[in-house]
């Protein structure tokens, strides 16, 4: 149970940060993917108002993070220290360079919010390292970054991995991680075509066909398994890892979604979408709930076993080790 049962899908980031101000003040919080008009910016603006010791923003283009920093400094009387860090999560080299800067400065991080991502790229695109772009950016980059800075995360710290409510549609494609077109996927790795159609993703029939929304949801499932894997490895250090979904929010992230719209969807503002992520990051009642999932600002039952199976998480962890040439 969360501390605030009155919070729901209409709750704003400002309301969450005000409610948990004692758990924000004096802490260092790092948010990946901070750019104007996005969830990262909404979290940044709210957190800055309640006296954190330091905020760290990463962005693929540092000018975008700096734009958010400038808005905070312009509109806030006593803004906290803020550091902008250039990091392209789709590039292992960029992730390592960014991490090196943080480690060299011996920065202790209380809360890490893995927020950055790409969504619904219309054509199959590979990262500079040769991996499908959604998987590379949304999962592999965060997996590598989190592992590289894990020694900088404070005892009793918290990690939040941002996912989406559609995580159940696309299990991990271990036989075709990079969407190369393998048709003979095992049944347990195939997308739920009926559920995809009901969400307006389209009429899909072949497991091997690339679809931008499915690739995005595939990476979301991987992000939830990252929470499972980190819980197993970091919980003994008092570090809690949670998954959180913002709901349907119209931001720059959705610029590629085209006709993907469902008349039954309820759209949130950026500050309402970011609220669930901040509940996961700040609510003291969730420190003992590592591996849990937050949606509409409340603990929510995970309805698909493929994103909470420790064996699947370990298998994915081994895949990430191999892809990044690491041994975490």
UniProtKB/TrEMBL annotation:
<keyword id="KW-0560">Oxidoreductase</keyword>
<dbReference type="InterPro" id="IPR002347">
    <property type="entry name" value="SDR_fam"/>
</dbReference>
<dbReference type="GO" id="GO:0016491">
    <property type="term" value="F:oxidoreductase activity"/>
</dbReference>
<dbReference type="InterPro" id="IPR036291">
    <property type="entry name" value="NAD(P)-bd_dom_sf"/>
</dbReference>
<protein>
    <submittedName>
        <fullName>Uncharacterized protein</fullName>
    </submittedName>
</protein>
<comment type="similarity">
    <text>Belongs to the short-chain dehydrogenases/reductases (SDR) family.</text>
</comment>
<dbReference type="Pfam" id="PF00106">
    <property type="entry name" value="adh_short"/>
</dbReference>
């Amino acid at each position: 149970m969360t501390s605030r049962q009155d919070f729901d899908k209409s709750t704003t980031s400002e309301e969450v940060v005000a409610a948990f101000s004692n758990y924000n003040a004096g802490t260092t919080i790092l948010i990946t993917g901070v750019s104007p008009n996005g969830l990262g910016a909404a979290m940044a603006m709210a957190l800055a108002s309640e006296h954190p010791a330091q905020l760290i923003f990463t962005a693929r283009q540092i000018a975008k993070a700096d734009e958010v920093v400038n808005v905070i400094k312009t509109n806030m009387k006593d803004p906290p220290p803020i550091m902008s860090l250039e990091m392209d999560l789709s590039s292992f080299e960029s992730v390592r360079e960014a991490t090196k800067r943080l480690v060299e400065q011996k920065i202790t991080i209380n809360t890490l919010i893995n927020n950055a991502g790409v969504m619904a790229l219309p054509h199959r695109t590979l990262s500079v390292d040769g991996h499908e772009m959604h998987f590379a950016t949304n999962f592999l980059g965060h997996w590598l970054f989190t592992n590289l800075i894990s020694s900088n995360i404070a005892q009793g710290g918290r990690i939040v991995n941002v996912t989406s409510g559609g995580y159940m549609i696309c299990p991990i494609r271990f036989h075709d991680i990079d969407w190369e077109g393998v048709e003979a996927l095992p049944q347990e790795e195939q997308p739920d075509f009926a559920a995809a159609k009901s969400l307006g993703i389209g009429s899909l029939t072949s497991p091997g066909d690339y679809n931008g929304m499915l690739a995005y949801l595939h990476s979301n499932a991987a992000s939830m398994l990252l929470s499972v894997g980190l819980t197993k490895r970091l919980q003994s250090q008092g570090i809690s890892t949670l998954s959180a979904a913002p709901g349907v929010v119209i931001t720059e992230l959705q610029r590629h979604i085209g006709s993907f719209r469902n008349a039954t969807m309820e759209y949130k503002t950026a500050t309402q979408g970011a609220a669930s992520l901040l509940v996961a990051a700040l609510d003291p009642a969730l420190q003992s709930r590592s591996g849990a999932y937050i949606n509409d600002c409340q603990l929510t039952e995970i309805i698909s076993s493929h994103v909470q199976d420790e064996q699947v998480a370990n298998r994915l962890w081994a895949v990430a080790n191999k892809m990044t040439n690491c041994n975490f």
